[in-house]
Amino acid sequence: MVTTRISILVATDVPILRDAIRSIVAATEDLKALGCIETQSEIASRARELRPDIVILDTSFLSDALLAVIDSLIAQNSKVLLIGGEMDNAQIIAALYRGASGLIGRKSTPDLVCRSIRAVVSGELWVSRQLTTKLIELLRTDTVHMGGPNQAVARMANRDRTPKQSSLAAAGGENSFGLTKRELQIVGALVQGQTNKDIAATFGVSEYTVKHHLTNVFDKLGVYNRLELVLFAIAHQLCPAPEEAPLVTTPDTNTASTNGSGSRKR
């Protein structure tokens, strides 16, 4: 029996998209629709009035006002999930930097929509594998050029800290994280953009062993997926990012980086 339902506010002026989301939410026991906003100027005020757990924003509806709207919603402690329209990767990354927690496509299945909502509300980042790779590349490059994590990286790493992460951050220092030498090496490989297969080849171990190490790292640091791990590592200078490190591009499988059910993606 569901005791707490996730409250959702939708912002779009596309009737088909609006009706589709309403239908998905209405058919899902743990989700609750608060309404749909079709005027840009009303988004912040309606969110302030209704206080939704999450606001689903149609990026094509907001256009140039997207970042300002994200700012206003984050200030009100609502999570933000984007439904992608005609956005390039730079715009998506800018939105994530400002506080959006994920992106889904207009053709996402009902199951994917529900899982993404649950994941974002629980504090996870929800992006495709391809975008994860691009984010890691940008984060690593910025860190190398600036000699440390920039403010955007720090915001992304800190905005949804779990109690475990907060405790670790307060303790400070590389040794306080409790990672073994091999675990630190694997984190470093992830920051370089390597896949599990690449990491296995680098260290002469099996992919299963790599996944086992990542599971331990996720548990120790309180992160849920590879992107969150890279963010944490860069923001807390857990491992140095080399100036020249090959990035391995993984194909976009049109699936998200987490499954939204609490299990962790390795």
CATH architecture of the largest domain: 3-Layer(aba) Sandwich
Structural class comes to alpha/beta
Q: What's the overall geometry?
A: elongated
Q: Runs with pLDDT <50, length 5+?
A: 240-263
Order of helices and strands: EHEHEHHEHEHHHHHHHH
Brief sketch in words of this structure:
This protein is of the alpha/beta class. The chain has helices at 15-26, 43-50, 59-62, 66-75, 89-98, 110-121, 129-146, 151-158, 163-171, 181-191, 196-203, 207-221, 226-235, and strands spanning 6-11, 31-37, 54-58, 79-84, 102-105. It is elongated.
Task: Describe this entry's structure for a reader.
The radius of gyration is 19 Å and the shape is elongated. Helices cover 51% and strands 11% of the residues. It has 2 domains: 6-121, Rossmann fold, CATH 3.40.50; 130-235, Orthogonal Bundle (Arc Repressor Mutant, subunit A), CATH 1.10.10.10. It contains 13 helices and 5 strands. Strands 2-1-3-4-5 form a 5-stranded parallel beta sheet, with helices on both faces. The protein has helices spanning 15-26, 43-50, 59-62, 66-75, 89-98, 110-121, 129-146, 151-158, 163-171, 181-191, 196-203, 207-221, 226-235, and strands at 6-11, 31-37, 54-58, 79-84, 102-105. Helix 8 crosses helix 13 (226-235) and helix 10 crosses helix 12 (207-221). With 266 residues, the protein is an alpha/beta fold.
